[in-house]
Write a structure and sequence with these properties.
Organism: Agrococcus casei LMG 22410
Catalytic activity: 3-dehydroquinate = 3-dehydroshikimate + H2O
Radius of gyration: 14 Å
Number of domains: 1
GO molecular function, one term: 3-dehydroquinate dehydratase activity
EC number: 4.2.1.10
CATH topology: Rossmann fold
Bound molecules: 1,3,4-trihydroxy-5-OXO-cyclohexanecarboxylic acid
CATH class: Alpha Beta
Largest sheet: 5 strands, parallel
InterPro entries: DHquinase_II, DHquinase_II_CS, DHquinase_II_sf
Distance between the termini: 9 Å
Helix content: 25-40%
Number of helices: 5
Strand content: 15-25%
Length: 141
């Protein structure tokens, strides 16, 4: 099955960005990891642009494509992204993913405007979370 793995702002810097929090793996490593998940064709993308991310969600709705989404900082305040994600409900599963555990960090990270419209959330397991998300989507098909 085809899945979209969408990543929000600053995640293009994965590998060098605050490695003590996010680890040293890059998004290219995430793609390699997902290439090893049998039965899944994952397309990893990243943007710093809220509008572009929303357009990708719209396309996923239209194509009924399952999504793994790390909304990064948009998690905490983007009602526009949330409203786009809401359109996936009943159409295709959406897994919200975070490398770190936002609940163990600053209080502004404790709120997610996305979780209420996600099928489920994976947080705190680094890039292994992406593999788990892909396996869950495959196995729940
Ligand atoms: C993050 C957590 C967010 O709070 C933060 O803004 C990010 C990354 C994570 O993967 O742990 O950019 O989504």
């Amino acid at each position: 099955m085809r899945i979209l793995v969408l990543n929000g702002p600053n995640l293009g810097r994965l590998g060098s960005r605050e490695p003590e929090i996010y680890g040293s793996a890059t998004l290219a490593d995430v793609q390699t990891l997902l290439n090893g998940v049998a039965g899944v064709e994952a397309e990893v993308r990243q943007t710093d642009d809220e509008a572009e991310l929303i357009r990708w969600i719209h396309a996923a709705v239209d194509e009924r494509t399952p999504v793994v989404l790390n909304p990064a900082a948009f998690t905490h305040y983007s009602y526009g992204l949330r409203d786009a994600c809401a359109m996936l409900q009943g159409v295709a599963p959406l897994i919200e993913l975070h490398l770190s555990n936002p609940h163990a960090r600053e209080s502004f990270r404790h709120t997610s405007v996305i979780s209420g419209v996600a099928t489920g959330v994976i947080a705190g397991f680094g890039i292994a979370g992406y593999r788990i998300a892909a396996e869950l989507l495959r196995d729940s098909e």
